[in-house]
Amino acid sequence: MRRLPLANGESMPAIGLGTWRADKGEVGSAVRQALELGYRHIDAAAIYGNEAEIGVALERAMADGVARREEIWVTSKLWNDCHEPEEVRPALERTLADLRLSHLDLYLIHWPVVLRRGVLWPQQAADLVPLAQVPLARTWAAMETLQAKGLCRHIGVSNLSLAKLQALLGEARQAPVML
User: Is 48 a catalytic residue?
Assistant: First the structure.
């Protein structure tokens, strides 16, 4: 499988199984089949609502010798209602428990959007929290701490504009490994 080089000298599988909109009751089988076919990257997110089923499939596939943990690259994403620094670690710990893993290979800030705690999809303006109130740099600093503690090997962002990425780079201790 082709791999993509990362700035730190490591690499990740170029092709992965995306689990967005994968139906409950079917995603576990899809993950298992993908691993049996040679896929080594599984892309997940807490908001997809299927990480627990993915975790069962990963655990069983590893127990059955389909692939070892160090061969599988697992990505997940921080959802928008967990951007406050004190919410970042509990969100990752829920993801790790659901995925039945001790660490992620890549943890991303899913969107540069902050929602009030408990709001999964904004319905009104009051559901949104201004980035001035919870700057991405604060969320990113919490992500850097997770990596330093070994809960995720790499951290990155998704869905950022160039302007937001440049602003984040101006304050970050380390650059995102992935956009």
Answer: yes
